[in-house]
Amino acid sequence: MSVPWWRSAVVYQIYPRSFADADADGVGDLRGITGRLEHVRDLGADAVWLSPIYRSPMADFGYDIADYTDVDPMFGSLADADALIARAHELGLRVLLDFVPNHTSDLHPWFVESRASPDAAKRNWYVWRDGEGVPNNWLSTFGEQRPAWTRDHPTGEWYLHSFLPQQPDLNWDEPAVEAAMHDVLRFWLRRGVDGVRIDVAQKIGKDPALGDNEPGRRHDEDWPSVHPRLAAIRRVLEEFDDDRVAVGEVYLLDQRALARYVTSGDELHLAHNFYFLRLPWSAERFRAAVDEFELLTHAGGWPAWCLNNHDHPRTATRYGHARARVAAVMVLTLRGTPFIFQGEELGLTDGAVPAEAIVDVDRRDPERVPIPWEPGPGTGFTTGRPWLPTHPDADRLAATVQDGNPASALELYRALLALRRATPALQHGSYRPVHAAPDLFAYVREHEGERVLVALNFAPFPRPLPAEAEGARVLLSTHAERTGELAGDEARVFELGRADQAPVAE
Ligand code: NOJ
């Protein structure tokens, strides 16, 4: 069997509100994205994942959906979505959409109907409970920990919402819900999308008895029912062809639990790893995490790696600019599918958003500020008034400023993606950690005798190279000047001799 495309792919995440604004209303849109897809192609990525583009009142900026089969007018129209998909395909880019199965908007007609009365035809499409007090101890995400239940008028019953009260949870124990969500998938797969990123995938299986969460056992997610439900989603993808991919946002901080979503062979193809994403800057911690996940997925399953997205601070903010370069080399050379959040390739830090400009309920605005394409007002993102302040470092970090400058983050990313594309060992090779000095994380990737060594220095001071690097050719480094040891914050990639070349007999 040939290797599926998504194993050797690099996926680029687009947050539509902040990518490019074609109609000057200050919010990014689909025509803006279509016009900028060449940036993604030139970067060397293989696919884009778009955060939600559906009709939404935007209480959670699109993760509260009022119509799964239409585009929000702010982003454009279905025709614009078709044009985006067609243009992406012309450029050789696949398109993944965000699929949000756990909850809708409270303005979705399904919820409007469901909340009308206890006898409503769609009452059971959401999770309702009667009673004086909150039904259980489940908490909603965002800000302060609040009950995941809101009492609704006029019935006085409680409904479940794992996120905002404006995001009621669908009841996946109701077969009609599952069937309706499968139809949503078919709608987009028919339009040509190549796969989906599944929002909070672990949450579509919950204890139907609504038992209290207990220490060590949550009842509001990762319930055994989640696995057959994801397998059924996979089967819907397979109704089309074998090339459609399901990527789960599986927000579990335990790699063992995570691995169960990708190792059975009939569920998710890929799952984001939030244990890895949240690690502090430590060679030992990253190596231990990768080694553990490698073991867990060795017999089947393919890792996916990323260090941030639209919900998490940027790498350059968390770790600093120099370390963000090392992090880029790591994510793009580990065994697995890398995901790059828009702007990471520009080495952006989080934006500066003054308190009065914060609009997100969970204060995730700084990582969502518009992409600086060029210096100057609007930074090439918009000619209108941007919905979030433009990036304070646009004059230095804009794409046009970095273009062609070999010392820039953009050129480092381009070089890394080009190297990956040209090097089967980096795409498909096995992973073997090698012995290295403290503060180094070093590993060999090997494919059909071709061997590549990656050495990452997590320390800000020089460290000796691993023994394997002796005499090896350098393929790439984060540093222009290289010495016989790794400089502080340097990452270097080497070509090793072929493993199958027998030493010459004396
Ligand atoms: C995860 C998404 O990435 C985040 O932006 C959103 O707020 C929650 N899921 C709820 O949909």
The CATH topology label of the largest domain is TIM Barrel
**Global outline:** globular
CATH class of the largest domain: Alpha Beta
Strand order of the largest sheet: 13-12-11-5-2-1-15-14
Task: Describe the protein.
There is one protein chain. The protein is of the alpha/beta class and 506 residues long. The chain folds into three domains: 5-102 and 175-419, Glycosidases (TIM Barrel, Alpha-Beta Barrel), CATH 3.20.20; 109-160, Oligo-1,6-glucosidase, Domain 2 (Oligo-1,6-glucosidase, domain 2); 430-496, Immunoglobulin-like (Sandwich), CATH 2.60.40. Helices cover 27% and strands 17% of the residues. The chain has 15 helices and 22 strands. The protein has helices spanning 5-8, 30-43, 78-90, 109-116, 175-190, 226-238, 255-259, 274-277, 283-297, 315-319, 321-333, 394-397, 399-402, 409-422, 424-428; strands at residues 11-14, 47-50, 54-55, 67-71, 94-99, 128-129, 139-140, 146-147, 149-151, 158-160, 195-198, 245-248, 270-271, 304-305, 337-341, 430-433, 440-447, 450-457, 463-464, 473-477, 485-486, 491-496. Strands 13-12-11-5-2-1-15-14 form an eight-stranded parallel sheet. The protein has a five-stranded antiparallel sheet with strand order 16-17-18-22-20. Helix 2 (30-43) links the parallel strand 1 (11-14) and strand 2. The longest helix has 16 residues, at 175-190. The radius of gyration is 23 Å and the shape is globular. The structure holds 1-deoxynojirimycin.
Features:
506 residues; alpha/beta; TIM Barrel; Oligo-1,6-glucosidase, domain 2; Immunoglobulin-like; 3 domains; eight-stranded parallel β-sheet; five-stranded antiparallel β-sheet; globular; binds 1-deoxynojirimycin
